[in-house]
Amino acid sequence: MKKIVFGLLSMAWAITANAQEDAAPANIDNDTIGPWTKKGNATLLFNQSTFDNWLSGGENNISGIVGVNYDFNYKKDDWTWDNKVIASYGIVKTRTSSFAKKTDDRFEFNSVVGKKASEHWSYSAFARFKTQFAKGYVYDRTTEGVETRQEYTNFLSPAFLFVGPGMLYKKDDNLKINLSPATSKFIFVDKAYTVPDEGYFGVKEGESMRYELGFNASMYYKLDIVANVTFENILNLYSNYLEDPQNVDIDYQLNIVMRINRYLTTNLSFQTIYDDNAFQGFQLRQVFGVAANYGF
User: Fold this and answer.
1) What backbone phi and psi angles, to 5 degrees, belong to 161?
2) For residue 165, how many other CB atoms are within 10 A of its CB?
3) What pLDDT shows up at residue 17?
4) Is 33 exposed, middle or buried (0-12, 13-18, 19+ CB in 10 A)?
5) Angstrom distance (rounded) from CA 168 to CA 115
6) CB proximity list for 246: less than 8 A, separation 6 or greater
7) Which residues, if any, are the signal sequence (predicted)?
8) How far apart are CA 61 and CA 65, in angstroms?
């Protein structure tokens, strides 16, 4: 696990070290434009496949994903306040499946407030909240081949809340690193889902919350590789002081956007999560497709 964490951090540092320096922005009167900057993007990715007497095989399916990525940031004098919302939901329905199944389902809100301490460093306080919108299921089939499902997750079950003080390194809006050595982590669940031996996201059976105290490191790095191709990296690491501190939780997201024109892009989203309270191994999610976009 230490090798994995070290590798991810080394990769992030290598990208940062090799990135070209951004040109210094022109002097702008903040009183003219105001202290707030806001930018967002909504995407719709749709796919349909139909097969009829197709000898090489195939299964009819229809799928779609809708997503929002929105930033609203504040900067005035020595104070900064950066906020980011990521939300998406997607489903797929195949001809042989009895149920429509989720391909994506997440809501995440990140907020960091900073008071300048030096050129690039600030005293900070951060909060991060994440959950999902709809029910999640575990799927199985009976001996007769009938597909069944059992509820496993739902809105706010689980929900994760991280809060803590720390230090923020911010070169610009495209490179931010926040270190918080005293982070409180709250895990909220529906106690009806809990099972023995803390098998449901580490929450004891019959309880609805788990508390942890540990170290949190968060990094955001956005890079324009070539014209119209953007890589957005989001990395969160967490170590629980109270139990198995050597088991570092990892949440890494890579969002690649290749712009075709103003309204169409090719999108690749990759996410991997390691959290031994939820699953003994890496969780992986990958979505690729052409999306319609609306900027706001």
Assistant:
1) -130, 125
2) 12
3) 45
4) exposed
5) 9
6) 1, 2, 239
7) 1-19
8) 14
Nearest to 138 by CA among 81, 195, 213, 78: 195
Q: Looking at the 3D structure of the chain, how many domains does it have?
A: 1
CATH of residue 245's domain is: 2.40.160
SS3 4: helix
- What pTM was estimated for this model as a whole? 0.84
Residues in the chain: 296
pLDDT, residue 51, reads 81
Q: Which residues pair with 127 in a beta bridge?
A: 111, 163
Environment class of 118 (CB within 10 Å of its CB; exposed 0-12, middle 13-18, buried 19+)? exposed
Tell me: the pLDDT tens digits for 243-286? 999 999 999 999 999 999 989 999 999 999 999 999 889 999 88
107 neighbors 132 (Cβ within 8 angstroms): yes
